[in-house]
From TrEMBL:
Entry annotated with the keyword Transport: no
UniProt-recorded name of the protein: Probable porphobilinogen deaminase
Taxonomic lineage: Archaea, Thermoproteota, Thermoprotei, Desulfurococcales, Desulfurococcaceae
The protein's required cofactors: dipyrromethane
Residue intervals of the Porphobilinogen deaminase C-terminal domain: 226-293
Porphobilinogen deaminase N-terminal domain span: 3-207
EC number: 2.5.1.61
Catalytically driven reaction(s): 4 porphobilinogen + H2O = hydroxymethylbilane + 4 NH4(+)
Further information: The porphobilinogen subunits are added to the dipyrromethane group.
Amino acid sequence: MRVRVAARGSRLSLLQVEQALEELSRYAGVSMHWEVVRVKSAGDVWSDRPLESIGVVGVFTREVDRAVASGAADIAVHSLKDMPTSGYGGPLKIVYIASRPSARDALISRQGPGRVEDLEPGSTLGTSSARRRALSLHYNPRIRVENLRGNLDTRLRKLREGLYDAILASEAGLIRLGVDVEYTPLDPSYFPPAPGQGFVAVVARVGSKVEKMLRDLDKPPWWHVAWAERGVLEGARAGCRTPVAAYAEPLGGGMVRVTAAALSPDGSRAYWARAEGMIGEARRIGVRLGEELSRVVEGWHNTGGGS
């Protein structure tokens, strides 16, 4: 089967296309040959600006999806964490989610191995993620967190040049790129990731040859885990600017545990919620936890503590 794949043109994005389609070929039992249609997202065009200033929702996916909706490509490949929770129930649909090598964040520090609270007072930590910023300040309010955009190579170069004392990155990205750098993986129960972090999603038009091929196949075992984390976003109505984190893990025996967290942007307030249930109910569990987060955050705003 020949397919045109819309994707961002970064090295990591192209590696994710390769992983996702090789895995999808094995899953569907079909030999797939692909041609990449490179698309620049708004996040790529405005790479020098903080994400909040250009709009968080769909900033890395909107233009890529348009290529599929217009017929310029057959499918799109995205990092699941970049995808909004709305917009995939109409003409476009998530048809496959590739497995992730890790959900964890990684702390890369010029001060050596350690967790965020081990960074020295006054240290400068670089990240463009509101979630990573809030969690970092929650654990270590004595550091400075400054915006850092760009691909991983750019961020590592700025770290080596001494512009930052430490940076945060996705461990999945480090693994996929084969980066040889010392880092500390941060346990998800301590530093929960972005919902869907590490997963790669394949999007197709409803009724297309790819969507029809995958429609009736059994879902891979990590499918429910991914949707539990997205469920947290749905329930929390994220798209809002409140930093939200989620991590789901299978427990065996058909059970799943979902951890969710919400923080104020400055990290001064944080709320964790956890629940377990049958893995077939994972998405609903995630939604319920997200709704719980939403109620807590609304209470923060009502008491003047949500900023």
